[in-house]
Design a protein that fits this description.
This protein has 189 residues and is mainly alpha-helical. Helices cover 72% and strands 0% of the residues. The protein contains 9 helices and no strands. The chain has helices spanning 5-20, 27-34, 38-44, 48-67, 77-88, 93-111, 116-134, 144-163, 171-186. The chain starts with a helix and ends with a helix.
Length: 189
């Protein structure tokens, strides 16, 4: 079954915004990539910001199909949280695109209050995903909300350094540093 025009627009927007940035990508190019007219794109999305917000939500949904509840999720809690951290780092092409969209969101939400609810909603979903994982009895977490906040901040910070290919921060080192910082809070040695 062919994807709807709206879905094709969102898929094209995710791809092109991640590669070119929201300000450099042309609406006509997104429409062309999606195989629709520019007027149909404008019918579905009133502005670039509306397109960015929905593209981020769409990207998260696509990644969520892989990340959340995936058949590849390890069963032991420690292995699962490590796997989840990996799913959040820019370790492969699709995750690289997700990260580029996140960076676009951070920059735009800092300047444009109307995008802040999108940012808050996406972080809340990530928070809930990790909160459920660390609630496992294998862990002894004193303050789950604070632990997840710290974990997300670590992922963001180390993720940016791997995204920009900082020579001092390989993906493997980022994984190790995040785990070294969060394991004590989980009660894991």
């Amino acid at each position: 079954m062919a994807a709807s025009a709206r879905t094709r627009i969102l898929d094209a927007a995710v791809k092109l915004i991640a590669r070119e940035g929201i300000h450099d990508v042309r609406v006509a190019r997104i429409a062309m990539e999606a195989g629709v007219s520019a007027s149909l794109l404008h019918y579905h999305f009133a502005s670039r910001d509306a397109l960015l917000a929905e593209a981020l939500e769409h990207s998260y949904e696509l990644a969520g199909d892989i990340r959340i509840g995936g058949a590849d999720e390890p069963a032991p809690a420690t292995a699962r949280v490590r796997w989840m951290i990996d799913q959040c780092l820019p370790s492969e092409e699709s995750l690289h695109d997700d990260w580029m969209l996140w960076v676009e969101l951070w920059l735009h939400a800092a300047r444009q209050p109307e995008l802040r609810p999108t940012s808050a909603r996406l972080y809340a979903r990530m928070h809930a995903w990790f909160s459920e994982a660390i609630a496992d009895p294998e862990f002894t977490v004193v303050d789950p909300a604070r632990t997840v906040d710290r974990l997300l901040a670590l992922i963001d910070g180390y993720g940016i350094r791997t995204l920009i290919e900082d020579p001092e921060m390989s993906l493997e080192r980022a994984r190790d540093e995040i785990w070294a910082a969060i394991a004590p809070e989980l009660g894991v040695r």
